[in-house]
Amino acid sequence: MKAAVVREHGDFDQIVFELRPVPEPGPGEVRVRVKAAGLNHLDTWVRRGVPGHTFPLPLVLGSDGAGVVDALGAGVGGLEVGEPCVLLPGTSCGVCPTCLAGEDQLCREYGILGESRDGTCAEYVCVPAANVQPKPENLDYAEAASVPLVFQTAWSMLVRKAGLRAGDTVLVHAGGSGVGSAGVQIARLLGATVIATAGGATKCRHAEDLGAHIAIDYTTVDWLDEVRAATSGRGCDVVFEHVGAATFAGSIKSLARGGRLVTCGATTGGQVEISLHQVFFKNLSILGNTMGSKGDLCRVLDLFRAGRLRPVVDSVMPLDELADAHRRLEARDVFGKLVVEP
Ligand SMILES: [Zn+2]
To answer: pLDDT confidence of 332, banded at 50, 70, 90?
Structure first.
C-alpha cells in the first residue's frame, strides 16, 4: 500500500511516500481501507518536530480519516466488513479509572493516530475497534474525515471545560481555521452570542455563514477594540483560544468579570505573559484542553446526523499532494479543513 511517512523531522520534503505491506489487524483491531484523511495542525508539528518531545518515527501521518471496514482482528464483534466508518483519533487503554469515567483523553496511555502510532495518510490503517464508528450517512467520506479531531476538541473546550451556557458571549479566534469553524458552530448551537475573528473579508463572510453574529477582520482593525465595542465594554464570558502568543494578552483583556479562557493550541508560540492581577481581580479562569473524549465525538457525530452541525471542507486533494497541503495549512491559505484521498 502507499503511505505518507515522516522518517526525519523537517521541512515539507520530509514527507516521503513509501510502498508498504498492507498491515494485518492484531487482536481487538480493525483494518480500515482509507477513503479520505483530514489534515490538522498537529500533522505539521509531527513533521517539523517539537522540542522536548519524541515522536516514534518513522510514522505514517494523519489523525483523521474515514473509509470502509476491510478486515477484523481476533475478538472483534459488532462491525462488518464493507461498513462505511469514521475513525476516532484518540487511543487509550480503555480500562483505567479515567477511561472508565469517560475521560479517555486523560488516560496515561493516551495517544493519537498519526502522532503516537501510524495514522490515516495511507491506503490502509489498523486501529483498535473502539476507534471505529459508523459514518453518518449524510456525509461523504471527505466530509466525515474533516470532522473528528477539531469538533471533538471544540466540543470539549466549550461544553466540558468552559461550561458554555445559552446567553453567554463567546469570542472564537480564527473562526476560519479548522478548530475555529467548529467552535463557531458549536457555540451558536448552544445558544451563545458568537464573535469570531478572521483574516480577511472573505473569511469573515464564511464565519458569519457558519453562525457568527459578528465577524472581525483582524487584518484591518484592532480586534480587541471591536470586541469591547460589541459587548458595550463588558467583555466576553468565554474566549476560545488556539492562537497563542499573538493573541493571548488581548484574550485575557477581552474577558468579562468571571470569564473563562479555554485554550487548545499555540500556533503562533506558547510563551505568553499574564498579569495575575487581572486573573484574580476579575475572577478569571484559564483552562487547558487537548482533544476530547470518545463520548464527546460520538455526541458530535449524532449532531451531524441530525444536520445541526455541518462539515467545512476547503479542498479535497490527492494524497500525492500532501506536502502542498501542509504548505497551505501553515500559510493559513485555507477556510476550514483540507482533506487528502489516497
Ligand atoms: Zn486508560
So the answer is: confident
Residue ranges with CB less than 5 Å from ion ligand 1: 92-93, 96, 99, 107
CA of 99 to the centre of ligand 1 (A): 4
Measure 97 CA to ligand 1 centroid, in angstroms.
7
* pTM of the shown model: 0.96
State the architecture of 151-288 in CATH terms. Alpha-Beta Complex (3.90)
What's the CA-to-centroid distance between 292 and ligand 1, angstroms? 14
**What would the pLDDT profile of 271-327 be if each residue is shown by its tens digit?**
999 999 999 999 999 999 999 999 999 999 999 999 999 999 999 999 999 999 999
- Domain ranges within the chain, ordered by starting residue: 2-147+311-341, 151-288
Q: Is 12 helix (H, G, I), strand (E, B) or coil?
A: helix
Q: How many angstroms separate the alpha carbon of residue 271 from the centre of ligand 1? A: 30
Q: What confidence tens digit (pLDDT) does each residue in 187-213 have? A: 999 999 999 999 999 999 999 999 999
Q: For residue 244, how far is its CA from the centre of ligand 1 (angstroms)? A: 29
Please state, in angstroms and rounded to a whole number, the distance separating the CA atoms of residues 183 and 268: 19
Please choose, from the candidates 252, 64, 242, the residue with its C-alpha nearest in 3D space to the C-alpha of residue 143.
Answer: 64
CA distances from 336 to 87, 207, 223, 311, 319 (A): 19, 10, 21, 8, 18
